[in-house]
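Ops channel
N.P.: pipeline sanity check, posting one input/output pair.
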């Protein structure tokens, strides 16, 4: 078992070898500042383990990784870990609430009606969700990180919500993507 401190001692990443796999478990206090991602460090590189999700008053993550994959990326044995604030809530205070009519969705993969989309959304957290004729997911527009939901690149719309830019993704009630041309017209890809 290996342990690494996260966020100046406010959290910890534990790695346990189980045969040819490594189980990574992270737990960090929820400071209300935003969405954090956890990275494994080694030999001058890093690997994204995932996004911390709220659970029982803290931020948590559990992921199983192939030991071989870590060795191929020269991340085993690791030299450390870090938690990085990947999205800051407005003002960084706990009082920050989702936009009016939206709620926070920490596990968008559970809403997807397609296995590929669910797999693509597995590492995403902290999206905003609005239920209306199916649902819409909003992900903060960022140029300094990977595009969310890569399989839906052509379906994404960029819109300003409360003065901030977001990628918007529309879905029907079954979790299948909808291509929205404008607010009045939608084209369904699946029924």
């Amino acid at each position: 078992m290996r342990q690494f401190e996260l966020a100046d001692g406010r959290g910890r990443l534990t790695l346990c070898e189980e045969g040819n796999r490594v189980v990574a478990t992270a737990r960090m206090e929820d400071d209300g500042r935003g969405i954090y991602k956890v990275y494994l460090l080694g030999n001058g590189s890093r690997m994204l383990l995932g996004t911390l999700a709220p659970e029982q008053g803290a931020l948590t993550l559990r992921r199983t990784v192939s030991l071989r994959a870590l060795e191929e990326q020269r991340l085993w044995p690791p030299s450390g870990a870090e938690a990085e604030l990947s999205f800051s809530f407005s003002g960084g205070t706990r009082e920050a609430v989702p936009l009016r009519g939206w709620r926070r969705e920490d596990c968008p993969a559970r809403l997807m009606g397609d296995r590929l989309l669910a797999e693509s959304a597995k590492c995403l957290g902290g999206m905003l969700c609005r239920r209306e004729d199916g649902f819409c997911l909003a992900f903060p527009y960022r140029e300094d990180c990977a595009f969310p939901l890569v399989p839906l690149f052509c379906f994404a719309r960029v819109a300003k919500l409360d003065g901030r830019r977001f990628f918007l993704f529309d879905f029907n009630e079954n979790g299948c993507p909808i291509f929205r041309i404008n607010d009045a017209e939608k084209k369904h890809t699946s029924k």
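N.P.: looks fine end to end. The chain has two helices and 15 strands.
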